Amino acid sequence: MSQTFSSMADKAIKSLSSVILGKERQLKLALTSIFSNGHLLIEDLPGMGKTTLSQALSKVLGLSYQRIQFTSDLLPSDIVGASIFEQKEGVFRFHPGPVFSQVVLADELNRATPKSQSALLEAMEEGQVSIDGDTHQLPNPFFVIATQNPQSQTGTFPLPESQLDRFLLRFSLGYPDAIAEKELLKGNNGRTSLNNIKPIFNPETLNKVQQQVKTIHATDSLVDYIHRLVSATRQDESFQLGLSPRGALALMRAAQAWALLEGRGHVMPEDVQAVFVPVAGHRIIGRHEVQGDQLARQLLNKVDVVA
Amino acid sequence: MKHGLDLQVNRTAMIWLLVSQILVYLPFINWLPKWLMGLIVVAGFWRFRALKGHNKLPGSLIKTAAVVFGLVGLYFSDLPIISLEAATSLLILGFGLKNLELANKRDGYIVIFIAIFLIASAFLYDQQFLQTVYGLFCLTVLVAAMISLQQRQSEPVKTNLKIAAIMLSQCIPLMLVGYLLFPRLPPLWSVPSPDAQGVTGMSDTVSPGDLASLAQSDRLAFRAEFDGERPPQHKLYWRGLVLEQFDGQTWRIDDRPKDNQSWNLPFRQYSGLDILEYSYNVYIQSAQNDWLYTLTPSINSSGNARRTQGYNYESTIALVGPQKFSFTSYGLDSLSVELSEKDRQINLQLPTSGNDLSRSFVREQRLTLKDDLTFAQSILSWISQDQFFYSLKPPRLTSSDRIDEFLFQTKTGFCEHFASSFIYLMRLAGIPSRMVVGYQGGEWNDEQNYFIVRQYDAHAWVEIWVEDKGWIQMDPTAWVAPSRVELGLEEAVRGEGTFLSDQFFSPRQFGFLSNLRLQLDELQFQWQKMVVNYDPTDQMAIYRNLFGDSNTIKTAAIVAMVFAAIVALWGFMLGLFRLPNPLPLEVKAHQEITGFLGQIDPSINGSVSPSDLLKPEFKSSTWWPDLNQMVMALNNLLYLPEDQKTKGAEELKSSYVSLRRKLKAELKKR
Predict the structure, then answer these.
(1) Structural domain ending residue among the three candidates B454, B474, B506
(2) Which of B605, B607, B638 shows the shortest C-beta gap to A221?
(3) A211 plus A268 within the same structural domain
(4) Would A297 be classed as within a structural domain?
(5) Is B114 inside any structural domain?
(6) Predicted local distance difference test score (pLDDT) of residue A3
(7) Is A266–B611 a contact, with Cβ atoms under 8 angstroms apart?
(8) Residues of A in contact with B641 (CB under 8 A)
(9) Is the pLDDT score of A227 beyond 90?
(10) Domain residue limits at A36
(11) Which chain A residues are closer than 8 Å to B606 by Cβ?
(12) pTM of the model
């Protein structure tokens, strides 16, 4: 079973690679996030292909797609929708917002005010939206890809830690490498080939994959390793805030999904190492100058795999 | 900041430290310069105020000034440069001033360690039982203070004391073994006895009033334990010194060389005769001089004693600590049979003039009484019949003719007055005579068969030379106040009410306290006999009891083994010898191989997963297959679900062993 899923995933990655050039690791991480039923945060400068990635992802997965561009004057109702009085019928009718979609791209999330940010984050957490006393179920699967400008950019509202914790993974796409960039310049434009992408998954298979991920085997030695990493973030002198239990669970789930992508029925330490930085980077706070991904990488190099 | 606070002495610990300091000072109060006590009280009080937040700790200027003041003060305190007092005072000065900078835990530990050292040094002054009990009490408080120093939260005083007491009582077995078995080495040096100052005791000169003032002290002189029979109370004359030189007022030792021949009594001659023999042990706590006090005549059977001129004994080692001496005494009335011309001259020496009344009195008496012994006895009976009085507070003799003034005017005196005047009369009559000073009597403890002799038992008596008989002991005091020799000074001056009247409080005033005092002394005596006087001889006896007859090397080996066993047991209880849990093979293999590979490729360490050890760069090496095998086995053992494992510990072990060997060889080559 996992074999078929992993070959499907391989196909999906191949397909995505034709759109996003030379970013296989990030593509795998994006799939990892989806397979673990978690949301994704991409932190990057504008023009790196975030939007293209999310569009391509939704196509490969066979899911509906909506994009919300977050701006400083965005209101919560612009996200979740609103009840509007229908004059013809004389009743209020709920007009669902863009959040009612299977894949939602929340572009430049940190440009919006905290109030609007939290409207989306609440929807992510609950899987439903309540407006005027009515509860509206969000579609299943529901998957948010948020993008964020680096905090140093002007006009941003940084997300608080409690909300960052809701994203399973965070990574940056970064600049393309030389080959990919030259390819891009030659006119092999991602946006044009976007149309050629065929769906490989559908909501049903995706659901099965997500169930499968939970069954990927982890031995005691491996769980020990994960626990060592997690407790190191809590005890190490250079950490001010370590991983929460939710973070620890996210690490486990992501490692399982990565193992599935690798075509294995059990988790290996390499899987944990592959997802540790994207899982932990945005959840930890360092005591000193070293922060985020760099801090997570340092810790990874300190903790013994076998002990 | 967190670390900074952790290093500070907390409030409770500071109070512990201050209290324990006070306890440690107490035994020294009598011995140290008073201003020094003042200085350390000020320093301690300053620290206390700082603790309360009323003021800060002094700056370096004040601290330096305090140190300089203390040192200058010590310099002008009239202490001998190399003496126990000087050393202790210096230590206590530093100890007290430490309060001015006592802030960190490190300082706290220093204070505690010095305090423990001070407790030990207090034993240089006093080794009595009560001091030991007090020392143990201080030690408990200090350990409790040390515990408090380690605590982040303050615990009740009782809790800390309890922990300290438990800890100390756990040390008792080690203490006992150390005390009983650890080789007793002779001291490398000795310090002058602290008793030499300011404490009453016998001196080598006697003027009228000297012994009377000594008799105001109830300080212990010595204890004498009798093995069997003891002499009757009125025969207990503890001979100390013989004084032969007289200048009209003061009696002194005549240190001109004597004709030793006449003193060498062949004691052996007595042993066959039907003469009472008393064997006894004298225990001296400490004394300013080396003089020993013995019954006359005695021979020394053990202890570091030496017979000097006459029948006197002195210790061959300084009496800085408790000592035990054993003697045998013989019940003889007279001593020696010969008197050399030189000694006769010495024992007839007198100031050439003065005391005319006495001179004419003797001339008159001598007309009828030609025989020396009869003359002496008639003088004694004159003393007993004429209105002479025995008193602890006799009127002061002021005229230049003191003997006349005493014999014919005041007629009231203490033993030295009577002895002195009697000898004067004897010498005027041409009878060689001399003064003996020492102690008379003592308090008998019936349970333990020993006499307690105190300073107020100090006494002076007389020996006169009678041709063909030798030296005969006479005590004119006994003729005036028979109760002095029968019952002791207390009874003799009861009517006068002067006994120990200088003392503010005397337990003798109450019967039950007096009883308690006797029991306490008994305890002290037992303590001294059993513990303080425990010496290499006793130790050898214990060795012999424990290990049988053995030579030094065997004994040393056994003692060393006992100590090694104790240390081993102790270490075992602390868990020093516990082996670490053996690492599982997988962990050991991974650790060791990543260590080796790390020397080849620095990017490899324990955080590299087994699969990642298979670096492309290693492919060409001879050990690649082994590495491959080991990684497979590791991954199998560690990460595959139980039912999928294909490789076991065997593969891991063989590949690991061979890989390790090859890696070692390769690393050696580099």
Answers:
(1) B506
(2) B638
(3) no
(4) yes
(5) yes
(6) 64
(7) no
(8) 217, 219, 265-266
(9) yes
(10) 22-186+198-215
(11) 304-307
(12) 0.51
